[in-house]
Every structure is written in structure tokens, then in C-alpha cells.
Amino acid sequence: MPDSSEEIEMIRLEAEDRMQKSLDSFKRDLSAIRSTRASTSMLDVVSVDYYGAPTSVKQLATISVPEPRMLMIAPFDKSSIADIEKAIQKSDLNITPQNDGNVIRLILPELSMERRQELVKQVKQRLEESRVAIRNVRRDSNESVKKLKDSGVSEDDIKAAQDDMQTLTDSFIKQAEDLAARKEESILTV
Questions:
Q1: Residue 27 pLDDT > 80
Q2: For residue range 89-134, what is the model confidence (pLDDT) as tens digits?
Q3: Which among 12, 35, 147, 150 could disulfide-bond with 186, CB atoms 3.0 to 4.6 Å apart, if both were Cys?
């Protein structure tokens, strides 16, 4: 049976892994929120119904950024162009695709200040969801550490582990806040 310090370390490593996954999910969410420049990651959230299977646009086409406010999608299979166009229209990107039969162009309209404020609200909402997810991991880990008290772990070790968990939580929340601040800045930059 592992000793108490090994058990605490295993709980900490699992918590760190889960917090990193929450942060990675937050990064993906942010990349899907539009800023003033076109980015291929905007299409990460678009799923195309390709022969009955949900498939990402990146698996079906080459995506490029020929201009700062334009995405160009060149499908590998020209017969999938209508499916890709339909998926983009259904998505929450609010961009009308322009299809010339060979490629699809997505021209990003200039963002109004109202729309920028809405996007900033989305960023803040996703940030709060990320904070909650990270804090839930902390709570679960602290409960696991408290259960070790029954197996003879000292209260000092439990307190030290909880303090360490708080430091870890603060670190991940700070990273999420920094990502959100950079995204907000890129949205508000005219």
C-alpha cells in the first residue's frame, strides 16, 4: 500500500491533469470566438455531416487566410463543398459563405462596437465557466485528501496538501484569466 505522501502526490497529479484539461478546453472555446482577424481555428467548432458522419472542416479541406479578414476553404473532394457550406451556415459564426464551385470564401465583416461587446461578454462567460471547472477539481481533490485522514494521515499533511491544491488552483485560474485578457484585447482592438 502506498504511503500517505504518495497518495497525496497521486491526488495532486490527477488534479493538475484535470485542471490542465479544463484550461485546454477553455483555449479551444476562446479560439472559436471571433476576433478582428480571421483565424483557421474559428472553424474548429464547425462539424460537417459528411457521408452520415460528423467530420471537422479541417479533415475535409485546406483552410487558408489569404487576407486578414478572409478565410478560404478548398475542399479535397469537390462534392463536399455544399455540405461544408451548409455546416458553416448552421454554425454560430454568423458568416455567409461565398461558394464559387471550387472554394468557399468567408469574408469577415467589420465588427461593430456592439458586436465586440457581445463577444467580450462571451469571453467573460467562458472564463467564469473555466474558473468553476477548475475550482470543482480543487473541491474534489480536497475531499479525496480529507478521506486520507481515516487512513492515518496527519492533519498537518492534509493542511499542507490543501494549501498546495489552492496554489495550483490559483495558478490555473491566473492562466485562464491571462488568456481571456489577451482575447478581449484582440476583440476590442480596432
A1: yes
A2: 888 777 889 988 889 998 888 878 888 898 899 999 999 999 999 9
A3: 35
Alpha helices by DSSP H, 33-112:
57-60, 81-90
Residue 186 burial class via C-beta count within 10 angstroms: exposed 0-12, middle 13-18, buried 19 and up? middle
Q: What are phi and psi of 45, to 5 degrees?
A: -85, -5
Encode 1-50 in three state secondary structure. CCCHHHHHHHHHHHHHHHHHHHHHHHHHHHHHCCCCCCCHHHHHHCEEEE
Nearest to 118 by CA among 35, 45, 41, 46: 35
User: Among residues 80, 107, 134, which one ends one of the domains?
Assistant: 107
Residues 121, 175 within the same domain: yes
In CATH, what number is assigned to the domain containing residue 86?
A: 3.30.1360.40
Phi, psi of 47 (to 5 degrees): -115, 125
